[in-house]
Amino acid sequence: xxxxxxxxxxxxxxxxxxxxxxxxxxxxxxxxxxxxxxxxxxxxxxxxxxxxxxxxxxxxxxxxxxxxxxxxxxxxxxxxxxxxxxxxxxxxxxxxxxxxxxxxxxxxxxxxxxxxxxxxxxxxxxxxxxxxxxxxxxxxxxxxxxxxxxxxxxxxxxxxxxxxxxxxxxxxxxxxxxxxxxxxxxxxxxxxxxxxxxxxxxxxxxxxxxxxxxxxxxxxxxxxxxxxxx
Length: 230
Description:
By secondary structure, the protein is an alpha+beta fold. It is 50% helix and 20% strand.
């Protein structure tokens, strides 16, 4: 009997990985959230109520609090991936979504160069704001919160490209190849790495796509392509 061989493309592998993560998150998240909440309350009690004395105990309690918050953020990111199942779409102005994403992302040291138009799209406003805020956050991290981020629109017939460019450290080939993979992250903070995975999911559910052009040491350009309403 001839042996059957099965193979999956990279995209199919990522989809299966995302499904597995989603199943785990939906089952475990409630219990994890409760445990982490209790631990954070205990840490607060020892630090603020009992006011434990001594440099080392306070240092350890501070580390405990920061690690609990980090784990809580990990669970939140995992949960976020399971919630991207249904969108509430409406006719809206892409200009407003981008403007809000930029305003929410402004920090000292970051300069924004903006060239936007009023373009109508059919979208979930909250989810698309999440996408652009996440991409801008990655740009800020790549520049260590110091530099220039360019946000512009390019209209091509039935689609609009939102191009977000930074002058940060860029990506090498391996990072570029894996940046959309669930759980992949290059950050030293041990982040889960769901930002681009979730963003890609959301954009594809809007009938769009994300493309990244980058070179190590020479910044990064993220293209978010979305269908427009004429």
